[in-house]
Design brief:
Conserved hypothetical protein from pyrococcus furiosus pfu- 392566-001, ParB domain, globular, 3 domains, two-stranded antiparallel sheet, alpha/beta, five-stranded mixed β-sheet
Length: 303
């Protein structure tokens, strides 16, 4: 590793009302081709860097790291080494992570002293954009983390909702709905982060007069999103939680018990909507791996 790029470069926040400068697809494409990069050794090529000289980005969109998954990755790295480099930028006397903080954390657990990195001179806006895209593509962000990253790009770098939608290949309504989650009380947002509430539950109670009380009720009784929406509609300004609890408790106890039994059996959240004669059974998943698990269990394939 050379010492020529150890000075900190922090570009001032830029306002980009439209367009994304160099283009995220191009930037990410360059990262994906790290193995065949022919650039100078200190800019774009894969090189080794001391783990102790690498620091996480304080505004990294991802805040929650699953301990079990992190442990599995650490064991894999310990056995096979780190295959995919971490993307960093010069920062002070070392480097700051642009993409790959999870791998960096796992490398520390695996007691690695050096890790492969790609050094790129990204500015603040590009750094946040790339970190956001990488996490969304890997489905690593919960809804609140994703919403907070969108808000930062809007507030600090002048992105519009339409530009953000193009950036992450989502609809504009998806971006708008996520941003609305930031209007929820801190306690409810924490429940979304922990997985106690789904994004659908949270959206249903955004405009409710006592969102926190409703959120705890929904989580405690394992209500479906449709039930949460109905509960929120019945909520009135000044109403107490008792009326909401009574409305929620009107659900058939056998249906609630069956939902819990099925949820435990498949390891995922199961909701049953029943009108007395017919109904639907919904299984919620958070990743393609979980969807694959559902398909395997329904088809009878070995898992």
């Amino acid at each position: 590793m050379t010492d020529g790029k150890t000075s900190s470069k922090k570009a001032p926040a830029r306002k980009k009302p439209s367009g994304l400068g160099r283009g995220l697809s191009a930037l990410m494409g360059e990262v994906e081709k790290e193995a065949s990069v022919t650039a100078a050794p200190d800019e774009g090529a894969v090189q080794m860097a001391p783990v102790g000289k690498i620091a996480p980005h304080p505004d990294q969109p991802r805040r929650h790291f699953d301990e079990e998954a992190l442990g599995e990755l650490a064991r894999s790295i310990e056995a096979r080494g780190m295959i995919q480099p971490i993307v960093v930028r010069p920062h002070g006397a070392g480097f700051q992570i642009v993409a790959g903080e999870r791998r960096w954390r796992a490398a520390q657990r695996a007691h690695l002293h050096q890790v492969p990195v790609i050094v790129r001179d990204f500015d603040d806006a590009e750094t946040l954009e790339i970190a956001l895209v990488e996490n969304i593509q890997r489905e690593d962000l919960n809804a609140i983390e994703e919403a907070e990253a969108y808000k930062r790009l809007i507030d600090d770098f002048g992105h519009s909702q339409a530009a953000l939608a193009r950036l992450v290949h989502k609809s504009r309504s998806h971006v708008a709905n996520l941003l609305r989650l930031l209007d929820l009380p801190d306690a409810v947002r924490a429940m979304v982060v922990s997985g106690e509430l789904d994004m659908g539950h949270a959206r249903a109670i955004i405009s409710a007069p006592d969102a926190e009380a409703l959120a705890r009720l929904i989580a405690a009784q394992g209500l479906s999103v449709r039930d949460a929406e109905a509960l929120a509609r019945r909520a009135k300004p000044g109403g107490d939680v008792r009326s909401k609890q009574k409305a929620a408790s009107e659900r058939d106890a056998d249906i609630v018990a069956l939902e819990r039994q099925l949820s435990e059996a498949v390891g995922l959240s199961v909701a049953i909507d029943y009108d007395g004669k017919t109904g639907t059974v919904s299984v919620a998943y958070r990743s393609l791996d979980q969807l694959d698990l559902i398909c395997q269990r329904l088809s009878g394939e070995k898992i």
